[in-house]
Amino acid sequence: MQLLHSKRRKKQNSKGDNFLFPGSVIIAFNPPIHLKSIGVIGAGTMGSGIALASALAGYDVVLNDISDAFLQRAFRNIGALMEKASEKGKLSIADANAAALRIRTSSHFEHLKTCELVIEAAVEKLETKQEIFSRLSDICSDDTIFATNTSSLSITAIASAAKKPARCVGLHFFNPAHIMKLVEIIRGYDTTDDVMYRAEGYVKQLGKVPVLAKDYPGFIVNRVARNFYGEALRIMGDGNATHEQIDRIMQGNGFAMGPFQLMDLIGIDVNFAVTESVYEQFFGESRFRPHLIQQKMVEAHLLGRKTGRGFYDYSEKKS
Ligand SMILES: NC(=O)c1ccc[n+]([C@@H]2O[C@H](COP(=O)([O-])OP(=O)(O)OC[C@H]3O[C@@H](n4cnc5c(N)ncnc54)[C@H](O)[C@@H]3O)[C@@H](O)[C@H]2O)c1
Question: What ligand 1 atom has the least distance to the C-alpha of 222?
């Protein structure tokens, strides 16, 4: 297996191309794990989940956000996620406490200085992510790996703001990040094999399944998913069915969640930003056009579960 893989690598790891074909589950290569400390920037839905997944896997984590209030909220959320997992018998109290002790929170960027891998999970805006990579370049060592959890933006464009684009990579987790197994690993134009292997090693250490994706808008999963949401919104907008009916039908057809339930979980603002980004990056291809319903919901601050109301009302529910 190992020999077969090395031959394959020799043949396929030319610059700019993946060492296995896109979408392949990486199974053949098991790099040694050198990373110990992980920084996570953005303590929202995804950052909290990534921090938790990393701490549960034994990494020391520095969780960063722009204000202490956001960090306190994140710490409460992480506590609630662990409580839920231990109620279900999936996490012991001892492991939960050990993981909590491994997470430090800080609104000061300088505290990310010693992290070997920093994962950016801030808002889905190219300028914000570029600014973060640029600031990280000023404080971290040249060996530090900068990863972005962007859902749709170009890894190459984000990496262009870093001093060392070769040390940048896309690590696209899914929501909830401490539970979902799949992680897309995306190589930017300059990303080295070493960074790809270390990223792969980290993902495997989390007990997750790394999948290679090319640096195309939305990568694999989110590009496929655009029409799952988009067409559902158009059906509802045309008055053909309600969001409850569409969700029920899709669940009846074997989907774990319907498109509206999923949009509420992701965050209407995040989902709208991702759709806009994919639409723009494909030069306005009509099949990716965002829907006005989503825009209005963002304007009304109906962002889904995180604000208590989206397509559904969560104010009375505890989930
Ligand atoms: N929500 C999902 O289902 C999902 C899934 C996969 C990937 N993503 C991607 O992950 C990223 C974060 O999404 P989210 O849903 O967690 O968003 P979110 O709105 O829940 O959280 C974003 C957090 O980033 C913080 N932030 C903003 N600018 C910052 C900065 N300059 N420095 C530090 N922190 C900053 C905000 O204060 C907020 O706490 C986005 O790029 C999104 O596309 C989201």
Answer: 6
**Cβ contacts of residue 76 below 8 Å, gap of 6+?**
none
Question: pLDDT for 236-282, tens place per residue?
Answer: 999 999 999 999 999 999 999 999 999 999 999 999 999 999 999 99
Q: How far apart are CA 170 and CA 149, in angstroms?
A: 6
The closest alpha carbon to 52, from 101, 87, 106, belongs to: 101
d(CA 271, CA 278): 11
Q: Which of 116, 120, 184, 200 is catalytic?
A: 184
- The answer to whether residues 215 and 186 touch, using CB atoms and an 8 Å cutoff, is yes
**The pTM of the whole model exceeds 0.85:** yes
Q: Whose CA is nearest to atom 29 of ligand 1?
A: 122
Active site residue 13: no
- What are the start-end ranges of the H helices in 32-125? 45-56, 68-87, 93-102
Residue keyed to tokens 């710490």: 75
C-alpha 30/C-alpha 200 separation (Å) is 8
Ligand 1 pocket residues where CB is under 6 Å: 41-47, 64-66, 70, 121-124, 128, 132, 149-151, 173-175, 266-267, 270, 274
Residue from 154, 157, 155, 158 nearest 135 by CA: 158
In whole angstroms, give the CA distance from residue 14 to residue 9. 9
Active-site residue, 271 included: no
For 166, counting Cβ atoms within 10 Å of its Cβ (0-12 exposed, 13-18 middle, 19+ buried), the class is middle
Question: Is 18's pLDDT higher than 80?
Answer: no
Which three-class secondary structure state does DSSP give residue 211?
strand
SS3 state at 41:
strand
